[in-house]
Amino acid sequence: MSHLDQDKEVKDNAVPGADKMTMAMTEMFMRESDGHPPVIFALASGLSRAAIAVMRLSGVGSGRIVESLCGRLPAPRRASLRGLWRRDGAEPVLLDRALVLWFPGPDSYTGEDSAELHLHAGPAVINAVADTLVALGARPAEPGEFSRRAFTHGRMDLMQAEGIADLIDAETEAQRRQALAQVDGAQSRLYQQWADRLRVLLAHQEALIDFPDEELPPEVEQRLVDGLQELHATMQASLLEGAGAERLRRGLVFAIVGAPNVGKSSLLNALAGRDAAIVSPRAGTTRDAIETRIVLGDVPVTLVDTAGLRDTDDEIEAEGVRRSLFHVKQADCVVHVFTGSQAPPRLEGDGLLVCNKIDLHDAPEGAIGISVLTHAGMDVLRDVLAAHARALTAGQAQAPFTRARHRAAIEETVHHIGRALGMDWPEMRGEEMRLAMRALGRLTGAVDVEALLDTVFGQFCIGK
């Protein structure tokens, strides 16, 4: 990507400002100040209408820029009310009266000299301050650049950085708790313990390779094998117990399926508390999947109302049936809806039987009886769905993984440890253990992480 293309991408996604920012930003991309990355700035409070907008700055030179704006630096980590001035003309121009906070590095979020400007949140104020920052040598931050700099300066590892992104996106209390534990380093500490154990075992293996003719105690190799087996079993257990945390982070999908006119759309509307789907006595009304997001048992759940399952000559309805079957395969739970006048469908996989219209027919044994029309049984159904959501996201792992990247790295580590246990040659066993160390290191960013950084930090908001 050229410097001009980078400039356009950052300008489109960062703080709103006038067109005259373009040339200054392009120049800043093409040079660095005194060998240091340029000062970056962004709104940490987003672009929504509010009373206060928080503008963050970070980088060597932040102090000079703050001094240019308000005359002198405030005391570290103390809010000070200051006038912000533009001084590029004959007469200084007052931009705003704002609270200014100064965070000298390395004791800051990024590890660099940093500052916050708590502005009045009018667009004209934000634009004027942004233009002035650019004129003073700063540039708008890229998505996640603040957290990336914090990672670079050792203020956090990759796991903690991902936890911050999850904390920003958390919709429920359970997601908040899980993300906060990750930010506090619960996962990092566990994975570091694994890495330390593996490093000690690898040192023992290197000793066996380097001193094959020495009279090393025979228990050295046995302790090595026992340690590998114990670590292998621990990590395998974590894979089995930690999947619920990944589901909690992304949310669950519950697909509502059944024959036409059994009340699927009515059930979706009742659970959502609004008219999300069209309800009609005419069979085949729902032609495409309709999704709505709710919270069940403190877990975000996407409900999917699907087309009625039946044979049809209608080309559009047939496509809807095909899509319904696709959603059934992808769903975390399938809610099979039928009526008492029908035979209960056969459950396949993780699903629930829900018999609607119990005001007309009794529900058979094994099914949850409801009437969307009279609301009978709806509280029971909500409780069952909530319990099911909690069960699907529960786990016993000490610090469960929350992303596919985590699972893949742990699976790769387990794979190489398993291969090491099957090796008779010390050199081959040692190589597999080194590959396991490298895979484990990618979790926290200890080794070989450059290819991961854009993906990890690109999902952040600008001001993080």
Give the helices and strands, then pairings:
Blueprint: H1 3-13, H2 21-29, E1 40-43, E2 52-58, H3 62-70, E3 80-86, E4 93-103, E5 114-120, H4 123-135, E6 139-140, H5 145-152, H6 158-169, H7 173-183, H8 186-210, H9 219-241, H10 243-250, E7 252-258, H11 264-272, E8 290-296, E9 299-305, H12 315-330, E10 333-339, E11 351-356, E12 368-369, H13 378-393, H14 404-421, H15 426-444, H16 450-457
Parallel strand pairs: 1-6, 7-9, 7-10, 10-11, 11-12
Antiparallel strand pairs: 1-2, 2-5, 3-4, 4-5, 8-9
Helix pairs in contact: 1-2, 6-7, 8-9, 8-15, 9-14, 14-15
Task: Report on the architecture of this protein.
By secondary structure, the chain is α/β, with parallel strands linked by helices. It folds into 3 domains: 3-142, Probable tRNA modification gtpase trme, domain 1 (Gyrase A, domain 2), CATH 3.30.1360.120; 159-242 and 399-457, Four Helix Bundle (Hemerythrin (Met), subunit A), CATH 1.20.120; 249-393, 3-Layer(aba) Sandwich (Rossmann fold), CATH 3.40.50.300. The chain is built from 16 helices and 12 strands. A 6-stranded mixed β-sheet has the order 3-4-5-2-1-6. The chain has a 6-stranded mixed β-sheet with strand order 8-9-7-10-11-12, sandwiched between helices. Strand 8 (290-296) and strand 9 form a beta hairpin. Helix 6 runs antiparallel to helix 7 and helix 9 packs antiparallel against helix 14. It is flat and about 85 Å long. The two termini are 23 Å apart. The model is unreliable at 1-33, 282-287 and 448-452 (pLDDT under 50). Keywords: Cytoplasm, GTP-binding, Hydrolase, Magnesium, Metal-binding, Nucleotide-binding, Potassium, tRNA processing.
